[in-house]
Structures are given as structure tokens and as C-alpha cells.
Specification:
The chain contains 14 helices and 12 strands. By secondary structure, it is of the alpha/beta class.
Length: 406
């Protein structure tokens, strides 16, 4: 059986599927991961077949305002929809659809006449619940009724982002007109199954979710078991006390000089060694107490750190918990305030520092707190023990076997 996983967005929106895909390949499935060209090396390194999706979120700039984000997302999705249809021309027996690609993939399964042979594999909770407000709002809980109402409103806003893309896609597939909201409601009535690849330590399954929505645990990015950290990084780690990693992933492009200065001043003010991970921001600094690195597997580096300062992305948040390492979060946009708040509520991180409020003094105080107050380390260690009990890829494999055997 050929399984096609479709995912798009930033690195954090794609990398987890390399681990999921590798697990499915070991189980005997022929696995294809369709995503943007930027991530072709990640896909092929995991031993998976790569199919190209044409859209690239990186070329659309660093939008942060909500209206600007909506416009950027709509343009990205419209381009993505046509490429998705091209990727499907080579065929697949089962579609695994991410949060971003599901509202497009539903129309493809309708066109092929096999709507039952698709499964949601989401990295964020999107279904309305009274337990918390929608993750994209970054707001505090408004009470159960208001949380559910804002959750439904967020879905309607997402439908608007997909309107043009869906209209073009259905025309190409020679399907009758149907709005994104109409298709979404159809999937909800059918209890279309969605697996959520995050830990119940951070988000327990809401009791008011409909049947078919499950939280299974993280899908960890693939990395070669034989891979080792670069020599200069290994030497730095061995040369003194555990350092603090500071990185913003795919966020803050073009803001590297300012952020690098803030990071170094904060580390020295707190009296700590540090590692700057360049990322899209281009962080960089020199000195005996600071090292600049590129991309390395979180699974290899994080267990050897005193703390991680990061943007609150779902993948980085989970990787820090898995390593039992406390965090300081500096959320920038989208779902990052949600995950940052979850880490803080768990006790595994300090209160988030909003990106626009970041200063060297504030960062130094938070880093000093998270490193020296053992309560944060204990909370992170307890969460790590919980994550060990979860097997997200194994649960996904079991669900796929049940779906295809039925």
C-alpha cells in the first residue's frame, strides 16, 4: 500500500512527519511525503519518497499582523492547492493530511471516490472545545461557552483562507461547487478521524470533542541513529557547565543582529554559557562562553543543556520536554503563545516573554530563574517521564491498520 503524507509550512510543520513516515516504512508501507522543495533533504534522509508541492511560505516575508497573516496564508494555500493536485496525479492508496493540507485533501478524496481512505494527522488542536480558546488566538480562557464560540469562529476564519484555493481546486477536479465550510461540516458529521501528534502532558484530550478525534503523542523528527554532534559543539559542551541554547527556529527573519546582542547580554548578565542556534533570524556571536551553531537534532543536543530559550513552536516545546529540560519561551505568532502558555502552566517554563517585549534584562531574569529554581527542572523531568509512556507513531500505525483492514 502506498501512503502519501501531505504537509506544508515551516520546518516544524514538516519535520515530525519524517519520523512518522519512517515508522510506517519500517512496517512495510510504501511512504511518500509531499511537501515544499525546501524540505526535500529531510524527506530523503528519512528514506521516504519526496513529491514536490510548489508553494513556499518563506518567500512571503515575515508577516506577523493578523490581517497580513491571513492574506499571506490565503496566497500560500491557493498556490498549494494546485500543486497538491499535481502530487496526487502519481497516485496514493491512503492520504494522511496535516492541519494545513486537510481542507484541500478532502476534495481530492471526493474526486477519486475514496473519502474513507484518508486520515487527519494534526500537530495542533483545531476542533472547538470549552477547555481552551483556539490556539491561533493566543488568548486566555474566556470560559467554556466563550471558548467554544471563539473556536467555531476561528474555523470560519480558516475557511475564508481556503475559499479561493478550494474553488480553483474543485474546478480543476470537475467537482460541483462546494465551500470550505460546507466540506468541513460534512467531514465533522462523518466523524472523519484525526490523530493529534502532541502529548497529553501538554494537551489532554478534551472530553467535549466529537468521536474520531484522538491525542496519540508526538511524532518525532527522524534522525540517523549513527549521527553525532559536530566536533566544535561537542568540545564546547565538554568545556564547562551545561549551557543555555537560544534559538527562534524559522521565526524573526532579518532580526538577527538585535536578537544576538540581546541573547549575549542576557547570558552574561546571568553568568551562563550559551549556544546560539542561527535559524532564520541568523543569530551569531563569538566568544569563549558563546558558540553559534546551525541545525542539529534536538534529540542529541537538548538533554545536555541547562535550559532552552525558544519561540514556543510545537516541535521545540515537545523536544525540550522530552529531554526533561526547562524553557524560557519568547512566542512570536500563530500557535506559539498557546504552547508557551501550556509549558508555563505545566511548570516546565517561566511565564512567556512576548517577542515584542523582549529585552536583555528581562531575558536574563527569566533564564536565571529557570536554571536556578529547581521547580522548573522537576516539572520538565516529570513531563519527560510521561512522554516516554506515549508512542505517537505506533498509535498512528495501529489506526492506519484498522482503517485499511476495515
Amino acid at each position: 500500500m502506498r501512503i502519501l503524507i501531505a504537509a506544508a509550512g515551516s520546518r516544524g510543520d514538516v519535520a515530525p512527519y519524517t519520523g512518522l513516515g519512517a515508522e510506517l516504512r519500517r512496517a512495510g508501507y510504501d511512504v511518500v511525503l509531499a511537501t515544499t522543495d525546501t524540505f526535500a533533504p529531510l524527506v530523503r534522509d528519512a528514506g521516504l519518497e519526496f513529491r514536490s508541492l510548489p508553494a513556499d511560505l518563506r518567500v512571503r516575508g515575515g508577516a506577523t499582523g493578523k490581517r497580513e497573516l491571513m492574506r499571506t496564508a490565503a496566497a500560500f494555500i491557493t498556490e498549494l492547492g494546485q500543486g497538491f493536485a499535481d502530487a496526487m496525479d502519481e497516485g496514493a492508496d491512503l492520504l494522511l493530511l496535516s492541519t494545513t493540507t486537510a481542507p484541500l485533501g478532502w476534495h481530492l478524496t471526493e474526486a477519486t471516490g475514496t473519502p474513507s481512505l484518508s486520515l487527519g494527522v494534526y500537530l495542533q488542536p483545531t476542533a472547538p472545545t470549552g477547555d481552551f480558546p483556539p490556539v491561533v488566538t493566543g488568548s486566555r480562557s474566556l470560559g467554556r461557552l466563550a471558548n467554544r464560540a471563539t473556536g467555531r469562529f476561528a474555523l470560519r476564519m480558516a475557511d475564508r483562507v481556503y475559499e479561493q484555493a478550494v474553488a480553483k481546486l474543485r474546478h480543476r477536479l470537475q467537482l460541483p461547487a462546494a465551500s470550505p465550510s460546507e466540506m468541513r461540516r460534512r467531514q465533522e458529521r462523518a466523524n472523519w478521524p484525526i490523530l493529534h501528534g502532541f502529548s497529553t502532558a501538554l494537551v489532554p484530550r478534551p472530553s467535549d470533542w466529537r468521536p474520531g478525534l484522538e491525542v496519540v503523542g508526538n511524532w518525532w523528527p527522524h534522525h540517523d541513529p549513527a549521527e553525532r554532534l559536530p566536533t566544535d559543539l561537542e568540545d564546547f559542551l565538554r568545556a564547562g557547565p551545561r549551557p543555555v541554547l537560544i534559538g527562534f527556529g524559522s521565526m524573526a527573519s532579518g532580526d538577527g543582529e538585535r536578537l544576538s546582542e540581546i541573547a549575549v547580554r542576557a547570558l552574561r548578565r546571568a553568568g551562563l554559557r550559551g549556544i546560539l542556534q542561527a535559524g532564520s533570524a541568523g543569530l551569531a556571536a563569538d566568544g569563549e562562553d558563546v558558540l553559534t551553531i546551525g541545525d542539529v537534532p534536538h534529540a542529541l543536543l537538548f538533554p545536555r543543556l541547562a535550559a532552552v530559550v525558544h519561540h514556543g513552536g510545537a516541535g521545540t516545546s515537545a523536544a525540550a520536554l522530552r529531554a526533561g529540560v526547562p524553557a524560557v519561551t519568547v512566542p512570536v505568532t500563530a500557535d506559539q503563545p498557546f504552547w508557551a502558555g501550556r509549558l508555563a502552566a505545566l511548570g516546565a517554563a517561566t511565564d512567556p516573554i512576548p517577542f515584542r517585549s523582549l529585552t536583555a534584562e528581562r531575558l536574563a531574569d527569566s533564564v536565571d530563574q529557570v536554571v536556578k529554581q529547581q521547580a522548573h527542572s522537576r516539572a520538565a523531568a516529570e513531563a519527560a517521564q510521561h512522554l516516554v509512556t506515549e508512542n505517537g507513531a505506533g498509535q498512528a500505525l495501529k489506526a492506519i491498520q484498522q482503517l485499511t483492514d476495515g
